[in-house]
Amino acid sequence: MDSYKNLDIDKILEILDERVLQHTGRHLLKSERVLIKGSWYGRDYKEIASNSGYNADYLHREVARQLWAMLSEVIGDGIPVKKISLKPALLKLAKKNYFKLEVSKLDNNCLVGKTRIYGELPKIGSFYGREREISKLKNQIHVLKRRCIVITGVGGIGKTSLAAKLLEEILLENPNVYKDIVWIKIHSSVDNLFTKLINAFDIEIDNESIENQTLLLLKYFQLHRLLLVVDGFEKLGQIANFEKRLEYEKLFIQLSEGNHENCTIITSQLPLEEVIYATKNLPIDSLRLEGLEERAAMRMLNEKGLWGKECKELIKMHRGNPSELEEASDRIHRLFGGSVKTFFDYRTTVIGQLLQSMLHQQFGQPGLLSDVQREIMIYLAESTSESSPPIQFYNIIEALKKQIGLEVSIAEAIRAIEILEQRSLVETYRKSGKQEVSYSLQPLIRKYILVDPFNLVRRKTSVLQISNSIQE
Ligand SMILES: Nc1ncnc2c1ncn2[C@@H]1O[C@H](COP(=O)(O)OP(=O)(O)O)[C@@H](O)[C@H]1O
Ligand SMILES: [Mg+2]
What we know:
Layout: H1 9-24, H2 30-40, H3 45-52, H4 56-75, H5 86-96, H6 98-101, E1 110-112, E2 115-119, H7 131-143, E3 148-152, H8 159-173, E4 180-185, H9 193-200, H10 210-223, E5 226-231, H11 242-257, E6 263-268, H12 272-276, E7 285-288, H13 294-303, H14 310-317, H15 322-336, H16 340-345, H17 353-364, H18 371-383, E8 391-392, H19 393-402, H20 410-422, E9 427-430, E10 437-440, H21 443-451, H22 468-471
Parallel strand pairs: 2-4, 3-6, 3-7, 4-5, 5-6
Antiparallel strand pairs: 1-2, 8-10, 9-10
Helix pairs in contact: 1-4, 2-3, 3-4, 7-8, 9-10, 10-11, 13-14, 18-21
Bound molecules: adenosine-5'-diphosphate and magnesium ion (MG).
């Protein structure tokens, strides 16, 4: 692949050394580096030996055997690493760390291949799993030619990281396809998406009206091949201004249907329709992101120095949510000397910051949760536990009517619970073959509702004030 030509083995060795250190607690030895470098260039043991002053037999019998076994563990992903398969394994490692290698100094206007990168692209550190999601997204972009894709999910589940990883892979595979890749981060509800886009593309405007700006943006979209990410879109949902939302809706109708070959990827805690009140069914694909699968989450914990059979339980308790796992592992190191077992002996659930601030927003921001949705969540929190079965839809409605005295139509309840599902606030269980759907809550959300740390849960949709710090 073209983009591998510039890869520098010394930089790859640095990354490999970091990995080896994490896994084994030691750095690569000089003789091992010599062997890796020689193998990278396709040299045999004799050549490597004569270039380095080591004895060929020593390299082959003493160094190589142990090195390949160790590298199989560290970077093999289940496939043994040998001299001949070292380069593909290193390329895979390089691919995973592409930004560190090639574009780690990304600034506004930096070029990768023929693609100009602009905006506040986040730096990606270690990244695990998500192969299925990435290949689905690539298919939506390259094969199905979708113009607009929304990645939704709770705070901290990994939307931003996934979008950044996706860009990284697209850039690596097709560095010359897009003219611009632009990353726009929405910081707060007062951000103006139009201005941000106009500035990002350096479009000159002669007239400030929204119609004019929309027109110019679409023209630009038709003329250039672009990949655009709008990250943190839910923040725009805090704008009360109805007109502004309609303007955004119009823009997205054009972006998703217009005559162009570009793609806009949006990350949002809320489904797009809830942010811009789309009145029309937009041809927008969405991907609801759940936690990491167990294998990936396990690698994440192992690399953070957590081991043992209790790790599985830790992953399950946090539903594979990477930011929750990050915080939990920091805490386990800090308070329990890195023992997951001891953590469970003092069994407690602590909610991480990102999920917590999302829940503050859901319960605190007026208009986000209806009274029915709020009551459903409270009822589920009070009536289920980690070990109890989920509750059937019909029983939830009955409980709302009888216990809470809430007059609620079936249609209203269905809509309410669908929205909770879309926002990943409830967990859904469908028995295969049968129609019945049951609902429960993940442990951290249940705990938040029961503890209600900021007194936001049991308030009705009256005027609520939450501090700015919570919203960010
Ligand atoms: N696939 C992943 N592998 C490793 N860490 C991840 C992964 N996805 C997310 N994280 C970590 O979890 C945290 C939250 O991720 P982020 O993408 O910011 O979530 P979101 O955008 O959904 O709020 C970050 O610190 C990030 O490094
Ligand atoms: Mg994010």
